[in-house]
């Protein structure tokens, strides 16, 4: 399957007034997770642009430390994903508590980077973009176009970079999983 880059969403759709933002229902973690996954898929190119801007600024100020920090985070992420595919207890943790899994990756990266070099590069160049993405994805209400695009990705009509990352973390929308299961049964 060919990887497609999601289109850049209009900035007034990405960050308009407060009428399109609301606190998630903290009592319904599944619904909150679906909102985050949906927004991560839909606004992924916008998130990439914001992260690239922050990473570029920090990278310009401290290029070697940014390179070391980025390498450490990628290697730790790949290590955790590999371990979760080989250990059932980590797979269950990743599936049931994705935030805990990502926090474990970030804390491990933090300790390795603090051992190797500049922690502030990690905080501003790596953690801040991830935190901004998570906060926006948690607060941004979904719209019809958002849901439709995510269903197309979920049933395999298109694959994007964020889709691959969320697949590695085993985080997909519940309704997309049900639809994909149904389509695979029909194909059989």
UniProtKB/TrEMBL annotation:
The chain crosses the membrane at residues 40-61, 67-85, 97-113, 119-139. It is a multi-pass membrane protein. GO terms for cellular component: cytoskeleton; endoplasmic reticulum membrane; plasma membrane. Keywords: Acetylation, Cell membrane, Cytoplasm, Cytoskeleton, Endoplasmic reticulum, Membrane, Transmembrane, Transmembrane helix. InterPro entries: Prenylated_rab_accept_PRA1. The keyword Acetylation applies. Pfam families: PRA1 (PF03208). Signal peptide: none annotated. One of its GO terms (biological process) is negative regulation of transport. It is found in: Cell membrane; Cytoplasm, Cytoskeleton; Endoplasmic reticulum membrane; Membrane. Its main location: membrane. PANTHER family: PRA1 FAMILY PROTEIN 3 (PTHR12859:SF2), PRA1 PROTEIN (PTHR12859). Belongs to the PRA1 family. This is PRA1 family protein. The gene is Arl6ip5.
């Amino acid at each position: 399957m060919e990887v497609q880059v999601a289109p850049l969403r209009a900035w007034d759709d990405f960050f308009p007034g407060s009428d399109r933002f609301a606190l998630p229902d903290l009592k319904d973690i599944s619904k909150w997770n679906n909102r985050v996954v949906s927004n991560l898929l839909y606004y992924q190119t916008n998130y990439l642009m914001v992260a690239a801007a922050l990473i570029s600024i920090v990278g310009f100020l401290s290029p070697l430390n940014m390179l070391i920090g980025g390498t450490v985070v990628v290697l730790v992420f790949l290590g955790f994903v590999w371990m979760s595919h080989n250990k059932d207890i980590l797979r269950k943790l990743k599936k049931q508590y994705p935030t805990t899994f990502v926090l474990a990756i970030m804390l491990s990266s933090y300790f390795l980077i603090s051992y190797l070099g500049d922690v502030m590069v990690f905080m501003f160049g790596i953690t801040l973009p991830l935190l901004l993405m998570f906060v926006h994805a948690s607060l941004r209400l979904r719209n019809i176009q958002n849901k439709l695009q995510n269903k197309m990705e979920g049933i395999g009509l298109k694959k994007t970079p964020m889709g691959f990352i969320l697949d590695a973390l085993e985080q997909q929308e519940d309704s997309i999983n049900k639809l994909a299961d149904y389509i695979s049964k029909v194909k059989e």
